[in-house]
Here is the input.
Amino acid sequence: MSVTPDHPNTGDAAAIRFGRTAPGIPVRDVEAALPFYRDALGMTVTFTNGDPVGFVVLERDAAEVHLTLAPRHTAGTHNVAHLMVSDATALHDRLVTHGARIVKGLRDHDFGLRAFVVADPDGNRIDIGQEL
Here is the structure.
């Protein structure tokens, strides 16, 4: 049975509220990944687990990401997260200043977003957008 947005197969979809989502992002080395997420993106470490650390929760405003140690991880060409921000240009410029690799340059799209794609040190791609 297929489910379409107009005809969910169970419950009243309008009555169901979703909370924030927190993508799990695999990294080969947690300590090497932290400067990107903490310093370049400006997120705060709110939880760590393991000795050595193999899992980290980082937050900023309503955004949350979970870094998970995966020593054999190889990044794909897909985006692992989509992050909406209030000022894509300012974040783009901040990331460039921090030496981050911009995969797709900042531009305005006809679907109403100013957006760009950045890669973390492991090559995980994050699509960053701002509503126009």
The domain at 21-131 is CATH 3.10.180.10 (2,3-Dihydroxybiphenyl 1,2-Dioxygenase; domain 1).
